[in-house]
Write a structure and sequence with these properties.
180 residues; single chain; mainly alpha; 6 helices
């Protein structure tokens, strides 16, 4: 249910841009994060299906999954606020809220690791290097992105996330210079 709200919020944000193209100044980096989180939500929905194999549900497990979905919804609300009147457009908004956006991404990576462990060590081992490196790289780069105001860095990070293969293949991160 919460995931459905997150998807609806993301799509509603894009719909507002399409409906009122002159009202909102679009920023491509922001739109790339929209694509990333839309795919994240779809993947989350797909992979949480594995929880159907859990034979004993407890309230703490249920609560954990609910919190994870709630964090994803919160991230979606950060990407598309209800009102942009205090900002010159999405670029201005993105940089004003990037600490929250990237702080939450870092938290989501930690929660994702815990979620993966809930599915079992055997499952975690099967995911292998690709999962470990994607999760670790996004965690580290999100923490780095919080204080970095350099637009080139933010663009490069978004570009890596935009690459459809980057969700599963962090190799694109070699293009990101960390000395900025």
């Amino acid at each position: 249910m919460v995931l459905g709200l997150a998807v609806a919020h993301l799509l509603g944000g894009v719909a507002r841009i399409v409906q009122h193209p002159n009202k909102y100044r679009v920023y491509w980096v922001h739109l790339v994060w929209f694509v990333f989180f839309f795919l994240y939500l779809v993947h989350f929905w797909w992979w949480e299906f594995r929880l159907s194999r859990v034979t004993l549900w407890t309230f703490p497990l249920y609560f954990f999954i609910a919190i994870y979905a709630t964090l994803l919804y919160l991230e979606c609300t950060l990407l598309f606020p209800q009102e942009l009147s205090d900002y010159a457009g999405f670029e201005d908004y993105f940089y004003a809220r990037k600490n929250w956006i990237f702080g939450l991404i870092a938290l989501l990576m930690v929660v994702d690791l815990a979620d993966t462990l809930i599915k079992g060590l055997k499952y975690l081992k099967r995911l292998g290097f690709v999962y470990y490196s994607r999760t670790a790289s996004l965690l580290v780069l999100s923490i780095i992105a919080i204080p970095v105001k350099n637009r080139w860095f933010q663009s490069a990070l978004a570009n890596c996330r935009c690459d459809m293969r980057s969700y599963a293949n962090p190799g694109c991160l070699l293009a990101v210079r960390l000395d900025v």
